[in-house]
Amino acid sequence: MALVNTIVGALKSAAACRYAVPTSSSLLQRHNRLALGNNYNGGSAFYSNITVEKKGKKNNVGFIQLNRPKALNALCDALMKELQTALSDFSKDEEVGCVVLTGSNKAFAAGADIKEMQPREFAEVYKGDFLGFWNSISLFKKPIIAAVNGYALGGGCEIAMMCDIIYAGEKAKFGQPEILLGTIPGGGGTQRLTQAVGKSKAMEMVLTGDQISAQEALQFGLVANVYPVEELVDKVMEKAEKIASMSQIATGMAKEAVNSSYEMTLAEGIHLERRLFHSTFATILKLAINSIGSCNMGIINAKLITCKQYIRNVPLLDLKTCARIMRTAPTCFYVK
């Protein structure tokens, strides 16, 4: 309880977020950044509450870090709006095949900004678009990974669960402590947590405000793996670069198929999966099969199959050469 009071105190004492008023200069900079498209590498200068850059050996991983350390990365409206903007930019960037979302070693995000929420009344939040920005994470079509160190509480736990994969540092803590403030989760916590850890554990966490450790989160399936604090970001970047090297169309389809399992019956989910699988045969993969069908085992490097080639069904790619050159490539499609 003392720990929760400390966190609540930090959130209440944090300065409220404020929206930056764009000057003509900043508008011009943003216009130039958008115009640069794939060549844009960075972005911290355009944000007050997050840092944004492109990382990886091939510059194909979007990297977003929540940056309100004094408030333990409390999720104010301005931060969430900036996060929405960054994700929108990465969505349009054809070089970016995966995004990593992280915080600091002390806190991924300790919850929503309590000071910002306190003066709001029922009519305001009910009629307005309160928490509307939060959907940008769950609606993001490219794979997004949460790298969680420190506290992921309340809204912080919720936005981590909106991501496709969660990796945790060994000192990470997860929880939905809203009940201690006389409220309940409002960003999907009761739903996604139940799907991740089961009804009984989710009910215990929501009704008591108790937190779980990184190892417990791994045991319950909330996170995919746990790493030492100082190694977390590097390990996550390795996974992100691997995912980003795959075909973006294929990873998008895979993400859609897996996520549909939470909202469909088994029969409906299998039907969707099969239709998505079938659709790949109208793409460059169909050309691959035709090109190397006479081989006993042909190999095509997935990194050579781009979105444009998928969509436009370009027939000029020399797939036999690709198969021969990339025969030992670890990331590949095998076609009989």
UniProtKB/TrEMBL annotation:
One of its GO terms (biological process) is fatty acid beta-oxidation. It is found in: Mitochondrion. It comes from the Eukaryota. Keywords: Acetylation, Fatty acid metabolism, Lipid metabolism, Lyase, Mitochondrion, Transit peptide. GO terms for cellular component: mitochondrion. InterPro entries: ClpP/crotonase-like_dom_sf, Enoyl-CoA_hyd/isom_CS, Enoyl-CoA_hydra/iso, Enoyl-CoA_hydra_C. It holds the Pfam family ECH_1. Its EC number is 4.2.1.17. One of its GO terms (molecular function) is enoyl-CoA hydratase activity. It is an enzyme of class 4 (lyase). PROSITE patterns: ENOYL_COA_HYDRATASE. SUPFAM superfamilies: ClpP/crotonase. Gene3D superfamilies: 2-enoyl-CoA Hydratase, Chain A, domain 1, Lyase 2-enoyl-coa Hydratase, Chain A, domain 2. Its main location: mitochondrion. Belongs to the enoyl-CoA hydratase/isomerase family. This is enoyl-CoA hydratase. It comes from Bugula neritina (Brown bryozoan).
